[in-house]
């Protein structure tokens, strides 16, 4: 009886070795589809005795906003131009005046206003005028400080907030909002 078991074992070993030595004719080609690997549950080894676990609690870290870049005044004013180049402003401690090609400005003396002014107490006034050849500093989409105002420049407009009163305005080509 031992002989048939040995014969079966020898045949099985021979078939196993023959399967490892076979080749498949052809050339491999990459698939244009995005195949995903199958997932199979994996078992975890068990332990005969429980191991004490330590639980640690971590507080999520929130990045602090970048500090505002201070813009230096010239003769009591800071002059800026937005990244788009369409809005120019002069900033003093008392007010912010901006000039732009507004699309929805009210008429002043029969002409659409091209300027707006907000005082530190939040009073908004539309004006006609030209800031002239002011020495502007181009600003990027970030936060600045100038003459007691915080300036937050973004793609959709620029927000000027007086640091003492928290009044100010949001300026965009499509409109202005005072607060």
From TrEMBL:
Stretches for region Disordered: 22-70
Keywords, in A-Z order: Signal
Biased amino acid composition, Polar residues: 22-34
Keyword Cell inner membrane on entry: no
Compositional bias annotation for Low complexity: 35-70
Signal peptide range in chain numbering: 1-18
Superkingdom of source: Bacteria
Protein name: Lipoprotein LpqJ
